[in-house]
Amino acid sequence: MSYQKKYLPLVLGVAIAAGIFIGGKLSFTDAPDRLFSTNSKKDKLNRLIDYIEYDYVDDINTDSIVDVTVNGILENLDPHSVYIPKEDMSRVAEEMKGDFVGIGVSFYTYKDSIAVIRAIENGPSDKAGIKGGDRILLADGDTLYGDKIDDNDLVKKLKGPINSKVKLTVYRKGVPKLLKFTVKRGKIPLKSVDAAYMITDKLGYIKVNRFAESTYKEFKKALSQLEDLGATEIALDLRGNPGGFLGIAEQMVDEFLENDKLILFTKNKRGDIDESYATSKGDFEDGKVYVLIDENSASASEIVAGALQDNDKGTIVGRRSYGKGLVQREMDLGDGSAVRLTVSRYYTPTGRSIQKPYSKGHKDYYDEYFDRLNSGELLDPEKIKVDDSLKFTTPGGKVVYGGGGIIPDVFVPIDNSMENETLAFLQRRGFFGNFVFETLENDRHAYDAFSKAEFINKFKVGDDLVYAFQDYLNIRSDSKVTFVAYHDEVKQYIKATLADQLFGGGAFYEVFNQRDIMIDEVIKLSQGE
């Protein structure tokens, strides 16, 4: 065998290995002088973590160090590039997917047990016979009550693989023996359409709380149902909606815009532009639309409002929106965690960016609401600061502005009664919900004679319930609570919460919106006033 033949396999092997090494280092944007270089920044971080893991005097959880490092890096970027630890990924994925596998009850921890507020209509528990007021004591023999129960542990025990069965032991008030139920777990929707109903004979209402994977299907179903009921106008309520998937917003806008109308375009750091256009499949192109926004309407909500406003379609009603014009992409970090990294900016059809400044840091960025409050902008549209250099004109001749949110066509000031911060806080923290649950516990059958429509239109909350709610809060608070100035508003919160726990299906908003000044403004616009 010749020298060349003898060593040929070795030479080929070395060549292949070198090729694999070079291929791993190369990207299409690499310059030749970088081919064999190392990334000193990455090496520095890796070495530091290795030194701490192997040589530091004390045992340290290096995973937590990495988390701190990642968060520290992202804090130097924009406010919307965020890290998602692996322990949060499942929850975040469920929220954006729009469903999860479970038994289908809304509940809260009441005293020392799981109290069912309501079984989701046609869900697994509803089909099995679980009712509002039931206490779930055991799941497959595991105890679900006691002083140290944790909501996360409870959820884990009630969730499981789809179509798997769980045996529940339930206490029901008035029934002498514990009840046994076998519930087959199924897909439970995390609804993003909170309510859909007719406000007037021609005006329908749809409340959307986020833009998840399931949102467009929910929205489309609600829109079709309202059209069947005679809706030729839609009030699309995006107040408080923080956004979500850009593609879902595009689909929603497409229902209102004619074929080939520009919805938005995005631009990345390299200047690459991606445009999105409406198609001919929209079902509400001939109808009127009113989009309700406020200072907490962000991201995908602003895409919807901006696309319709810039195409002279419909009317934007409310207050200046949040001002988020950045697009994120979720990227896997290889250990079950991920980062949502800002990869581009989006622009409305006229070419405006509505991203508010973030150069002064994250705290100032998130505190900008207080600047609006202190300036009086939430009460007076003349206090909204606009930059003439960011002035744009729609095809219909309407002047619009970029630089920090969508400015509505019709301004509605903040309602200091129904949007009272104290009442909103009590609602968010569950005080109204807990009080109403205990009220129903005293006599659930007192409301059996009411249909949903009769309750919404005819039931009146008495003064006694307001005083009982005051007493309920005073037991749980060091300070004396009274609602002299907000007596009627408290009644509205109580009635809306009662409607929600008794009937679900958006009943809360059907009641609550009866005192909503922004809804009143939309009704006036619809009636040509």
TrEMBL record:
CDD domains given in the database record: cpPDZ_CPP-like (cd06782), Peptidase_S41_CPP (cd07560)
InterPro entries, alphabetized: ClpP/crotonase-like_dom_sf (IPR029045), PDZ (IPR001478), PDZ_sf (IPR036034), Peptidase_S41A (IPR004447), Tail-specific_protease (IPR005151)
UniProt domain PDZ: residue ranges: 89-159
A GO biological process held by the record: proteolysis
Organism superkingdom: Bacteria
Recorded family membership: Belongs to the peptidase S41A family.
Record-given protein name: S41 family peptidase
Organism, scientific name: Allotamlana fucoidanivorans
